[in-house]
Amino acid sequence: MNEAPASLWSVAAATLKKDIRLEWRSKDALNSMLFFSLLVVVIFSFSFDPLAEESRLIVGGLVWVAFLFAAVVALNQTWARELRNQVLDAYRVSPAPANALFVAKVLGNFIFVIVLEALMTPLFVIFYNLRVLGSAWQLIPIALLGTWALVVNGTFFAAMSLRTRNRELMLPLLLFPISIPAVLGMVAGTTAVLTADNPAHFYIVLLLTYDLVFTTAYLGLFETILHAE
Amino acid sequence: MPQGDIVVRNLIKRFGRFAALRGVSAGFEAGRLHAILGDNGAGKTTLLRTMAGLAHPTRGEILILGQSPRSACRDIGYMAHPSLLYDEMSGMENLRYFAGLYGIRDDARCKEVIRAVGLDPELTRPVGQYSQGMRQRMSLARAILHDPKVLLLDEPFSNVDVHSAREMVALLKSTRDAGKTIFVVTHQAALLEDVADEFLWMHAGQIVDRTRTAKIAETSEQPLRVS
Question: pTM here?
Answer without folding.
Answer: 0.90
